[in-house]
Amino acid sequence: MSADTVNPIPLYASSLRLTAVPTAVGCSRMFVRHTLKLWQLEDHAETATLIMSELVTNAVKASGITEPEPKSWQITAEHVIGIQLRAIEASLYVEVWDRTDAAPVGKNPDLETEGGRGLLLVEQLAKRWDVYRPRVGGKVVWAELSLGLPLELRPFEHTPLLLPSGIRAPQGPVEGQARTALLDVLLKTTTEAMVAVHVIRET
C-alpha cells in the first residue's frame, strides 16, 4: 500500500491541565461545553459534561485538595489533573488523568447514601469505560460515547477558553507528566482506530 492510497480518518482532540482543586470540576464542564460547541457536537454536550464532571471529581479526590476553599500555600505543583476530549470515527472520548495508580472503584450506595454514584452514572451514560496506564505513570480514566455517525471534519475558528485565574496547572514536572500521559493515550487509541478502519475497508 503506497502513501497515496492512505486515507486519514478525521480526528478532533483538545486537552487541558488543571490545578487539582474542587473548582476544577466546574472548569472541566466549561471546557466540555466550549470544545463541543467549536466542534459542532453540541448535541452530546450534556452527557459528556456529566461524565467529565464525575471523572474529574474522582481525580481531584484521588490526587488533589478537597477543601472547598483551599489556601494558596496548600496548593503545590503536584496538585495537577489532566482532561481531554477526543472525537474519532463515530465516538467521543472523555479522558481524565491523575497522578495516582489506584483504579476507581464502583460502589452500590443505598437510596439514603449521599454520593458514591459517580461510576454508576458513567456506566449508564457511556458506551464503555476503562482505565489506561500511561508509561509516565498515574492513570487515565476514559469513557466512550457514541456520536451516532462517523465524524466529519468541519472548519472552525479556534476560540480560547477563558478560565478563572490560577486554575490552569502551572508548568512543572507533574503538569508535563499529565500532558505526556494524555498524548500517550491519544496516540495509542488513534493508531488502533486507524488500523481498525483500514482492516474494515480491506475486507
UniProtKB/TrEMBL annotation:
- InterPro entries recorded: Anti-sigma-factor_SerPK, HATPase_C_sf, HATPase_dom
Alphabetized, the UniProt keywords read: Kinase, Serine/threonine-protein kinase, Transferase
Per the record's keyword annotation, is Zinc included, yes or no? no
* Gene3D superfamilies hit by this protein: Histidine kinase-like ATPase, C-terminal domain
Which ranges carry the Histidine kinase/HSP90-like ATPase domain?
22-143
- Give a GO molecular function annotation for the protein: protein serine/threonine kinase activity
- Name any one Pfam family assigned in the record: HATPase_c_2
Keyword Kinase applies: yes
What is the name of this protein? Histidine kinase/HSP90-like ATPase domain-containing protein
